[in-house]
Write a structure and sequence with these properties.
This protein is an alpha+beta fold and 333 residues long. It has eight helices and ten strands. The N and C termini lie far apart (103 Å).
């Protein structure tokens, strides 16, 4: 059993005829055809009929009308895919007024697709209160940069913690042939693949507190954005889509563990602060003992040093204000 494999399409840029030049030519032909028909009619009334010329003028009128359906306009950063009887003939990227084969224009299928897309938009607007902007003509494609502000997704990070994550994607159509022929609906394809890539990215990194030199979602936003863009470029390249930018817009723990994670972060912050305080206190005590010994202010044995270290550590590490106690006796009485 053999299976057919779809080949990847490549865009071929072509130039269409100038619209104003062709419009002037068609108007002259139309005026000439009408004049020929009038001439044949007047000559026929005088007894000199020109049957062949009359038939020719009558046939030329609908032909000219059909040919004039080939006019179309393109705005800046807009392209049109030319399809003739199901075969790709090229893409026009130049903005302005153009003319091409009238059979390149949207036929009944193109109009039907437009009506179905519009009906789908209306139904979606009724259900969600929003309206998505979609092109009615499938052969015309916008080359402008577009953005997708993704919804919040609930996923598990590398450590299995449930988190909420969202991203914004800036993209544009780069290859019109791939966008039209290699995927069914390139706009829906971009939305689906962006969500899939974001879910896959979140499962590869921890939210925070990773191992040494480990990239995390919260601490290494630039690296994560580069990784997300790379994944999207790989996924969307088959549809002729270029990714301009991809960044995280929302990152937080899921509500069910947010309070627990907040308490853990607070505890870790307290521990880190205590470590700094103890390190500083030890260095200050060491400096004090060395200065006393070098300047020979007082000679302390081991027991007196231990008492002094204990008192200094209490003073330096205590949270509340310390009140000194004056010892009137000696350490040994």
């Amino acid at each position: 059993m053999t299976t057919e494999r779809n080949t990847q399409n490549k865009e071929q840029v072509v130039r269409a005829f100038g619209g104003w030049t062709m419009l002037g030519a068609f108007l002259l032909l139309l005026i000439g055809d009408i004049g020929l028909f009038v001439y044949c009619a007047t000559q026929g009334s005088e007894g000199n009929p020109h049957v062949l010329l009359s038939v020719f003028s009558i046939i030329m009128l609908p032909v000219l009308i059909i040919l004039m359906r080939g006019f179309f306009t393109l705005q800046p950063n807009q392209a049109r895919v030319l399809i003739l009887f199901g075969k790709y003939r090229g893409t026009v990227r130049d903005s302005g007024f153009h003319w091409a084969n009238p059979f390149y224009s949207d036929g009944p299928r193109g109009r039907l697709v437009g009506r179905l897309a519009e009906a789908g938009n209306n139904l979606e607007a009724a259900n969600t209160g929003t309206r998505r902007k979609r092109s009615l003509a499938r052969n015309k494609i916008s080359l402008r940069a577009r953005s997708i502000n993704g919804e919040k997704l609930k996923v598990n990070d590398k450590r299995g913690n449930p988190i909420e994550i969202a991203a914004v994607l800036v993209w544009r159509v780069q290859d019109t042939a791939q966008a039209v022929f290699d995927v069914d609906d390139y706009e829906m394809y971009v939305e689906t693949q962006s969500e899939s890539a974001l879910r896959h990215l979140a499962s590869q990194y921890s939210y925070d507190h990773g191992e040494e030199n480990e990239i995390t979602l919260r601490s290494n936003s630039d690296e994560v954005s580069v990784a997300l863009k790379t994944q999207l470029e790989e996924r969307l390249s088959r549809a002729g889509i270029a990714v301009e930018e991809a960044r995280l817009t929302h990152l937080a723990y899921a509500p069910e563990i947010a309070q627990a994670m907040l308490r853990r972060q607070q505890a870790e912050a307290v521990i880190a602060a205590r470590q700094k305080i103890v390190q500083g206190a030890v260095s200050m005590v060491d400096m004090a003992l060395k200065d006393l010994a070098e300047k020979q202010v007082v000679v302390l044995d081991d027991e007196r040093k231990a008492a002094m270290v204990s008192n200094l550590m209490v003073v330096l590490c205590g949270e509340s204000e310390v009140h000194p106690v004056v010892n009137a006796g000696t350490l040994y009485t």
